[in-house]
Amino acid sequence: MDGRELVERLRRVVGDRWLLLDEHDLRTYESDGLLQYQQVPRLAVLPGTADEVRECVAACAQADVPWVARGAGSGLSGGALPVKDGVLIVLSRLTRILEVDLDNGRVCVEPGVTNAAVSTAVAPDFFYPPDPSSQIVCTIGGNVAENSGGAHCFKYGFTTNYVTGLEVVLPDGELVTIGGKELDTPGYDLLGAFVGSEGTLGVATKIWLRVVPVPEATRTLVAFFDSTRQAGEAVSAIVQAGIVPGAIEMMDATTIKATEAMAHAGYPVGRGAALLVELDGAEAECDAQFTEVTRICADQGSDDVRVSRDEAERALFWKTRKAAFPAMGRISPNYFVQDGVVPRTTLPDVLVRIDELAAEYGLTVANVFHAGDGNLHPLVCFDAAVEGQAARAEELAGRILDVCLEAGGSITGEHGVGVDKRKHMAKMFAEDDLAAFQRLRCAFDPDGRANPGKVMPTPRLCGEVPGVYRQHPLEAAGLAERF
Amino acid sequence: MDGRELVERLRRVVGDRWLLLDEHDLRTYESDGLLQYQQVPRLAVLPGTADEVRECVAACAQADVPWVARGAGSGLSGGALPVKDGVLIVLSRLTRILEVDLDNGRVCVEPGVTNAAVSTAVAPDFFYPPDPSSQIVCTIGGNVAENSGGAHCFKYGFTTNYVTGLEVVLPDGELVTIGGKELDTPGYDLLGAFVGSEGTLGVATKIWLRVVPVPEATRTLVAFFDSTRQAGEAVSAIVQAGIVPGAIEMMDATTIKATEAMAHAGYPVGRGAALLVELDGAEAECDAQFTEVTRICADQGSDDVRVSRDEAERALFWKTRKAAFPAMGRISPNYFVQDGVVPRTTLPDVLVRIDELAAEYGLTVANVFHAGDGNLHPLVCFDAAVEGQAARAEELAGRILDVCLEAGGSITGEHGVGVDKRKHMAKMFAEDDLAAFQRLRCAFDPDGRANPGKVMPTPRLCGEVPGVYRQHPLEAAGLAERF
Fold it and tell me: Given an 8 Å threshold on Cβ–Cβ distance, is A442 in contact with B442?
């Protein structure tokens, strides 16, 4: 099948309206939330049903053309970056909620349903815990691809802890069901491997999710400290007291300043750190633990603990936290969002080391993060108009990851590897460990057509002997002439 | 490498003392906890270090001889059943606890460490939640292989929710690290796929586990009901009230009678059902919820709710529950332990259907189970001395699984597929879904040497084209002459 035949076949599958060939239309999809990488795809399709997705993937398989699946494009690691001579499969039309079964705590959705829509569908008694800051726009399909987290994942776990089943189109066009509505189906747990595989093993067309009862009570406070070290020690003390907050988030001085300018929550600009702690659960438990958290914050040096008096104030606390990324635009023309993980106990030392590195590079680094998980989101500020500053900022962002690795941590907590972190994978994994990943990839996508160039540090072809790879043909020769 | 060379090579690896060739010695290992399957292995090795395990597996790879890894052999699905002409790798000497890091809530152990020893190593402030009834003897390596559960998994999750990293010897003798001490490392989540793979993808030599703080308070009660239907409705009412008990276990009339004869807990023989409910968490939460659970049990018809007054009484409640399997020996010469899952809301109807089937077969079926998870453990009683009764009992056990599947459930909750449930896999999965499992298997064990004949319904060879398989050579021609 040549390029022209592929286009006609895709047109028959999705209809003329949902096949995009014009560069102007395609430019919408040139990047995801990670703006420093851009690539216009050769064409895009917007299938309307699972069956159309399957037919699009099968057509790409027959034409031997690579493809990338995309949800809302809000990802921050370039996981949905199109491939130059490939097809982009946009899933934003697959927005049906197929089943709501509250008796068994399950929801079945199509991949284009937004994260927030799942909680809305099961409100007011249930909710879907993983809550990326982008939850109003990001899709469940994208959440599954990246194993997305969020502020409440410290207590509640990540996407992988809530997906019980997937209907998946494999790269050869086969439709399979992995897991189901029940927890823990027999056979290999391929679910875990698919969740977080960043679109390289196939594309989910139906997703069974576990939802949980809304806790009886929620209590939220913000405590201000002189330093992130003090706040970090408060985090350790809270966790060591056996308290598992629903969320425990930290913002440093730079972030407080930036967010206050945007959200006007009355936060004291100039303080060294803010710690947002949310407790949820049974009323009685919340009250008892809330007293203890307040005491711990005071013991660790906070002289300013603010308790939300009503739902409006609680919403304001959260708005301030969730505004951190956009707010940074007020104090810096450009910034990189980094995503690294460190053991919780090393947080204070790692934050000091990041400050030292920022000084060495002459750049500002703001820190806002999921403190309970040790999941840092340093925002490396720079001005792209200043010659060489973007490159210096990117180098600094890489050095910060090295610090995370030296502390025994990881190069990504919840944003995924995508194109952005591939180069760091070899720092974290031995060659044999990467080869183990490649075995899985090759089992499901032997021809490397599904989201090529993501996750793995070097694109490789699957050989017949496991562990032996050749250069990927996309790198060796362009596919442009195929169209 | 011929059989003689393999024996000599293994002898050099583990030393003469830890190589078993004598049939008398080998008979110890002829079955696991599932006694109806027996097979003496050709030889057994007991390596003392991870490196020795790696060398044993590599030797088997070079000799192209199949092998089975075994922990304590307490599994109930025949997952550790030896292969006739294969090597049994017994991991019971790998009992070192390599690291205890309570600050970060992690423990690193060798596979032969028992489940209970992990909790002991982190006591009194922490514990390891997954708690199979066999926890005093069963090993963490076996728990990882079977993704073992236990009474507290309703609230706390299964083994897969606690393993953060594995060092694994792959079937070709390669040593790889999957995951690590941190949660959510980048790259494919192979951890999920390895946990529960029943020894068919490799053998774990080092296991990082998450441990959690011991809850501040624990309250335990047993409520007696006239029928399992009443007790089942109490379970639904408790869960719908938003209460997540640490454990919620049901025993039917037959089980009450059998366990009372053994444990002497003063349980009222003749009552239709006993519900054991354990709440744990913050003191204040426990007290509040305990009052509610007591009220719900009374509302659903229980006129006899007993609250444990001290740790000794709580231990007695649990001893009674955990004695259910051995106690059944007092009322029946033989029994099969079945393991199936149903959606919690269907529990009352499924229990009635099981009673009807038992009557149809003229056999007694006792029910004791993790009610919160809908994870049934029907004990099908029979007398092997009566001609044909064992076969009828096995047929009935299969029919019970069909009932679980019709209710939208699963053929195993926590005991695994092993040899016992292979034949049922095709009832639950479509051919394409099973082929997806096989892709994973072939990616890591293309020659089918690791625990062959388990999990998958028909043994197959990995072809060069995914999805195309040939007959497994072990079935086609014996390997006996190789030795």
Answer: no
Q: Does residue A427 belong to the interface with chain B, where contact is any CB pair within 8 Å?
A: no
pLDDT tens across A173-188, in order?
999 999 888 766 788 8
Contact B47, B67 (CB under 8 A): no
B186 touches chain A (CB under 8 A): yes
pLDDT computed for residue A463 by the predictor: 66
Rounded to an integer, what distance in angstroms lies between the CA atom of residue A178 and that of residue A201? 13
Domain A97-213 is found in CATH 3.40.50.150: no
A3-90 has CATH 3.30.43.10 classification: yes
For the record, the structure tokens of A164 come out as 């019980």
CA-nearest residue to B414 within chain A is A184
> Chain A residue with minimal CA distance to B434?
A187
CB A80 within 8 A of CB A73: yes
- Burial label, A352 (beta-carbon count in 10 A; 0-12, 13-18, 19+): middle
Q: Which residue has the tokens 């002289």?
A: A303
Mean pLDDT to the nearest integer, A150-170:
93
Q: Residue B87 phi/psi, 5° resolution?
A: -105, 135
Q: Express each pLDDT in A385-419 by its tens digit.
A: 999 999 999 999 999 999 999 998 999 988 899 99
Cis peptide before B466 (omega within 30 of 0): no
pLDDT in tens, B243-284: 889 999 999 999 999 999 888 989 999 999 999 999 998 888
d(CA B225, CA B287): 23
> Which is nearest to A362 in space by CA: A345, A378, A383?
A383
The residues spanned by each domain of chain A are 3-90, 97-213, 217-326, 332-406, 431-477
Do domains B217-326 and B332-406 share one topology? The answer is yes
Which positions ≥6 away from A172 have C-beta within 8 Å? A58, A61, B466
Side-chain-side CA neighbours of residue A409 (13 Å): 26
Report strand pairing: B87-90 vs B67-70.
parallel
With b meaning 16 or more CB within 10 Å and e meaning fewer, what string describes B162-188? bbbbbbbbbbbbbbbbbbbbbbbbbbb
**Length of chain A counted residue by residue:** 483
Has domain B332-406 been given CATH number 3.40.50.300? no
| Residue among A177, A345, A373 whose CB faces B430 most closely | A177
Place of tokens 């006739």: B84
What integer pLDDT is reported at residue A466 of this predicted model?
Answer: 47
- Confirm if A90 and A51 have CB atoms less than 8 A apart: no
Q: Do A161 and B160 touch (CB under 8 A)?
A: no
| pLDDT on residue A154 | 87
Q: Which listed CATH number (3.40.50.150, 3.20.20.70, 3.30.70.2190, 3.10.450.50) goes with B217-326? A: 3.30.70.2190
Q: What CA–CA distances, in Å, run from B63 to A85, B41, B51, B173?
A: 46, 16, 18, 12
Judged by CB atoms closer than 8 Å, whether chains meet at B285 and A287 is answered as no
Q: Which residues pair with residue B225 across a beta bridge?
A: B273
User: CA A44, CA B370: separation in Å to the nearest integer?
Assistant: 49
Residues in chain B: 483
Residues 336-365 of B with CB under 8 A from A: 341, 343-345
pLDDT digits (tens, 9 = 90+) for A52-111: 999 999 999 999 999 999 999 999 999 999 998 899 999 999 999 999 999 889 999 999
Q: Kindly list the distances between the CA atom of residue A397 and the CA atoms of A37, A252, A339, A356, A359, in Å, as whole numbers in the listed order.
A: 16, 17, 9, 13, 13
Give ipTM to 2 decimals.
Answer: 0.73
CATH, range B99-213: 3.30.465.10
Secondary structure of residue B195 in the 3-state scheme:
coil
Q: Which residues between 216 and 235 in chain A have a beta carbon less than 8 angstroms from any beta carbon of chain B?
A: 216
